[in-house]
Amino acid sequence: MYDFNELVDRHHSSSVKYEEMDLKFGTNQLMPFWIADMEIKSPDFLIDALQKRLNHGIFGYSKRMPGYYDAVSQWLRSRHGLAAQPENIEYAPGVVFALNMMIRLFTSPGDKIMIQTPVYYPFFGIIQGNGRVISENPLILEDGKYRMDFADLREKARDEQCKMLILCSPHNPVGRVWTEEELRELGEICIANHVLVVSDEIHFDMVFKGHKHIPFASISEAFRKNSITCTAPSKTFNIAGLHSAYTIIYNAERMEKYKAELSLLDLNRSNAFSQEVTQAVYEKGHQWVDELVEHIEGNMKYAYDFITKNIEEITPYKMEGTYLMWLDCRKLAPSAEEIDQRFIEKAGLALDSGYWFGDSGKGFMRLNLACPRSMLETAMHKLLKLKI
Ligand SMILES: Cc1ncc(COP(=O)(O)O)c(C=O)c1O
CA separation (Å) from 111 to 71, 76, 150, 163, 256? Predict the structure, then answer.
């Protein structure tokens, strides 16, 4: 029913992906496959909701209405089997903002916070920037698949200074959709050692056939009590610029603290557009998301086959979810700097460098597959130039 193959020119639309490319890559002239937003236009029902609000013509102080909370609650229940009442849900401008708040509110300077590397790079900055200490629990790459290292996790969780674990579920950049078994083991270790789990589930809607996203808080009452979830419709519906994330907090005391902090920062009111859009996409977006996930999975298969057949120096990993493909480029060049240079200078492509995600990402690259097929085809042919 929906078309995901329309090419939209994003130049001059204040897009970070296009206008800030030079800060990372030294030029704005590359074809962009970095940063996680999509080259796919948002659906008409989203644009109509914005248009309706726009047509009203007055944009004074705005309050989040019950319809917003109901729509979020309903989406969580129907798509993910997570029971969250409106009182368990609260707005956040972004997921990174929410993670920052959780660090500040529920740990103290000097505390250790665990992350599972390679992982979404702002996690490093928000831990260190808030005067906390990173405790790394590196993922293990075995037979072409990443898994958690529970022995190491257990040992690090035992450290009394370790107070929080930031879980990335589904995982960016390695593309794992964690199984219930894996989440259970992680959660039980954290409960036994009084480590609060903050679960970043921003990629939760983007999961391929044969896999299922399990919300961490849905596993048991004990998990619910020992966790905070941060998520958003922003990846799914391509609205990161509309600041429309939210948190799910079951513990009433923690929720009060979070709300008080939002109020202190004067963020307790609403952006007039973001709540309208969140409500609209969560009420009307089911079919669009189903079709989008099929499109992304098709892109993944296409890229996987193309690379496997034509570029033996790169090993692509089939992800289970997210729209981000992790490429092992270690055979391409001896250093991460040379790999970067080849992508930029030979292929003319901007991808996220693996080492941004931690040392264990060195020699890897992350490819954003959320684009029309024709754009991906062009990128694949550009990749061939890496060999020359
Ligand atoms: C795992 C993860 N968390 C958070 C974010 C960013 O969320 P926000 O833009 O809402 O801060 C991203 C964006 O790529 C992400 O991949």
Answer: 36, 32, 21, 6, 22
| Shared-domain flag, residues 89 and 236 | yes
Tokens of 147: 């898994």
Same domain, 167 and 229: yes
Question: What predicted TM-score, i.e. pTM, was given to this entire model?
Answer: 0.98
Ligand 1 atom showing the smallest separation from residue 37 Cα: 14
Q: Quick one: tokens of 224?
A: 């619910």
Q: How many residues does the chain have?
A: 388
Domain span at 375: 16-32+287-387
Predicted confidence at residue 387, as pLDDT, reads: 79
Instruction: Examine the domain organization and report whether 261 and 362 are in the same domain.
Output: no
Query: Would you call 144 helix, strand, or coil by DSSP?
Result: coil
- Which of 17, 116, 120, when mutated, tests ligand 1's pocket best, judged by the most ligand atoms within 8 Å of its CB? 120
What CATH number does residue 358 fall under? 3.90.1150.10
pLDDT band with cut points at 50, 70 and 90 for residue 366: very high
Q: What's the rounded Cα separation, in Å, for the pair 163 and 102?
A: 11
Number of domains observed in the structure of the chain: 2
Question: Which ligand 1 atom minimizes the distance to the CA of 171?
Answer: 1
